[in-house]
Amino acid sequence: MAEKGRIVDVHAHVTPQRFQRAVLGGEDWHGMTAADGELDNLPNRWKPERRIEEMDAIEVDVQVVSPTDVFYQYDRDVEQTKLISRECNEEVAEMVRDHPDRFKGLGTLPMQDPEAAIAEATHGIRELGLVGFMIDDQVNNLTYDHEVFDELWAAFEELGAFILVHQFHPTVVYYRIQDYFLFNSVGNLVDRTLAFGALVYGGVMDRYPGLKICLAHAGGYVPFAFDRMDQGWEVWPGSRGDSQDKPSTYANRFYYDTVTFTDRNLRFMLDVLGSERVVFGTDWPAPMQTYGAVDRLRGSEVLTDPEREDLLWRTASSIFDG
Ligand SMILES: [Zn+2]
User: Fold this and answer.
1) Ligand 1 mean position to 236 CA, how many Å?
2) How far does the centroid of ligand 1 lie from the alpha carbon of residue 229, in Å?
3) Which end of the chain is more exposed for a tag (fewer CB within 10 A), N or C?
């Protein structure tokens, strides 16, 4: 297949070197320690040059790098979270400045204080040159249908920010069962589905139609959840919130990454969502990343060539190049 664009990975994380220098030197970093940041997973330690070698090896042209979810720190004093966000965002911006053809940057925000989050988002896009932000599915158990976030969505829309919605511990599943890794293997997907529901039923997607929101991990259970959510919307009109139509009609208002592990699920999500809303992602360097992701898409027998091109570059190009 002839490739016409560069392969952009929208779901790739970074553990800031300034955090590592502090905690590996025995100091804390704005209250965070060596226990944070999964430093035993060696690629989290890598500097940009080593990261780029790996990107070459796995044929990823551009990573849209985001600080690892542990750097959300929404449950801290906001002044501390503001410092963490700013330093993370400055380091991501440095990576982009030093290697503009290999990295685009997503920042992190002090979401527990929407006003502070707007200020940091504006600074991140306008001054630091970031393209967007990664945010949790909720903020200290407050979901995104809450009016406290309204001006933040307006700001994201105005800034043209790409928003990657991505869980952090604890997911909602953790409160039910803490064994068997279900808090992640199931919990990530449940949290994503609830975030979708809050954004749709809360009317956020209708009030701010220009939002560019990407639901990580292939949208969680969203593609599978549509049928039952639609049925609930039909038979319980008093529970429609501010949504204007059935949940499935909002499918093409979001983006979704390709972090699935089988062709079966990839095919299903494309059948439900359409390839023009699905963008390449790996979750590198997490142990739960999709390994050999470029090769897999190139060789997949369940994709048409136009779909393959959408996933590998065209959808990303439509988001980031215009
Ligand atoms: Zn991730």
Assistant:
1) 35
2) 26
3) C
Domains of the chain listed by start with CATH number? 8-320 (3.20.20.140)
Within the chain, how many helices (H) and strands (E) appear? Answer: 13, 8
Alpha carbon 239 to its chain centroid, in Å, reads 28
How many whole angstroms from 122 Cα to the centroid of ligand 1? Answer: 24
Gap from CA of 191 to ligand 1 centroid (Å): 13
- Output the tens digit of pLDDT for each of the chain's 322 residues: 445 799 999 999 999 999 999 999 999 999 999 999 899 999 999 999 999 999 999 999 999 999 999 999 999 999 999 999 999 999 999 999 999 999 999 999 999 999 999 999 999 999 999 999 999 999 999 999 999 999 999 999 999 999 999 999 999 999 999 999 999 999 999 999 999 999 999 999 999 999 999 999 999 999 999 999 999 999 999 999 999 999 999 999 999 999 999 999 999 999 999 999 999 999 999 999 999 999 999 999 999 999 999 999 999 999 998 7
- Rounded CA separation 301/32 (Å): 45
How far does the centroid of ligand 1 lie from the alpha carbon of residue 135, in Å?
11
Report the separation in Å between the CA atom of 64 and the middle of ligand 1, taken as the mean of its atom positions. 12
Q: What DSSP letter does each residue of 102-115 carry, written as one string?
A: TEEEEE---TTSHH
pTM of this prediction? Answer: 0.98
